[in-house]
Write a structure and sequence with these properties.
This protein is α/β, with parallel strands linked by helices. It has a single domain, classed as 3-Layer(aba) Sandwich (Rossmann fold). It contains 7 helices and 10 strands. Strands 2, 3, 4, 6, 7, 8, 9 and 10 form an 8-stranded mixed β-sheet that branches. It has a two-stranded parallel ribbon with strand order 1-5. α1 crosses α3. The radius of gyration is 16 Å and the shape is globular. Bound molecules: S-adenosylmethionine.
Length: 205
């Protein structure tokens, strides 16, 4: 297939959220806790998370159509029915998601690969996303963010300190280990290369 044919296929066949307001609880059948993995990239964290917590209902959101399409295909091949993929901008999708107080935990592994000032508006972590996460998360639900960029980590800690309704899990905001026992592709690579990773954990009040 030509490049443009492939791009068309990714765009047309990447799974999308239902139109309008929609229920996260109806995306995957069952009673399990709902987890979000925002910007899952090549998807390792989805596979590792479903292995450690097969009873969870895991919803991955990824803006890149090619990644959403490919990871969805791999999930189907492994018949992993407790993971759902939504392709699109998490800030837009979560604005339409219901019900409030339904999400047990949220992971953002190595978000925001944008460095230029003019790309600031692309950054997923900001007031819009944190407002929706606060609305959707259960009280005491866990929000985990990790990055290999120190100044970004400092920004995320500052944003969480400034956002009412979240409490950082430590005085500094940082924790030593990934609390979800599921590595992302970037995390695995950073560990293998011996690079530092800043890990931030907060709970919803
Ligand atoms: C640096 S990559 C990290 C991928 C993966 N989480 C990992 O750690 O290996 C950041 C990912 O976030 C995705 N992303 C960026 N902004 C997003 C948004 N607004 N909504 C959903 N995904 C987004 C990018 O497409 C990319 O796949």
């Amino acid at each position: 297939m030509s490049d443009s044919g492939l791009r068309w296929r990714y765009r047309e066949e990447a799974p999308r959220a239902p139109e309008g307001r929609f229920s996260l609880e109806e995306l995957i059948e069952g009673p399990g806790p709902i987890e979000l993995d925002i910007g899952f990239g090549r998807g390792l964290s989805l596979f590792e998370r479903t292995a450690v917590s097969p009873g969870s209902r895991i919803i991955g959101i990824e803006v890149k159509t090619k990644l959403a399409y490919k990871v969805n295909g791999r999930l189907q091949k492994h018949d992993l029915q407790n993971v759902a993929i939504l392709c699109g901008d998490a800030r837009e999708i979560l604005k339409r998601a219901e019900p409030a107080g339904s999400v047990q935990q949220v992971a953002l592994h190595f978000p925001d690969p944008w460095w230029k000032k003019r790309h600031d508006k692309r950054r997923v972590i900001g007031e819009a996303l944190l407002t929706e996460l606060h609305r959707l998360m259960k009280p005491s639900g866990a929000l985990f963010i990790q990055t290999d960029v120190e100044h970004r980590a400092e920004q995320y800690v500052g944003q969480l300190q400034d956002t009412a309704g979240f409490t950082l899990a430590s005085d500094t905001g940082y924790v030593d280990a990934n609390p979800f026992n599921a590595r992302s592709n970037r995390e695995k690579r950073a560990i293998e290369d011996g690079l530092p990773v800043w890990r931030i954990l907060a709970t919803r009040d």
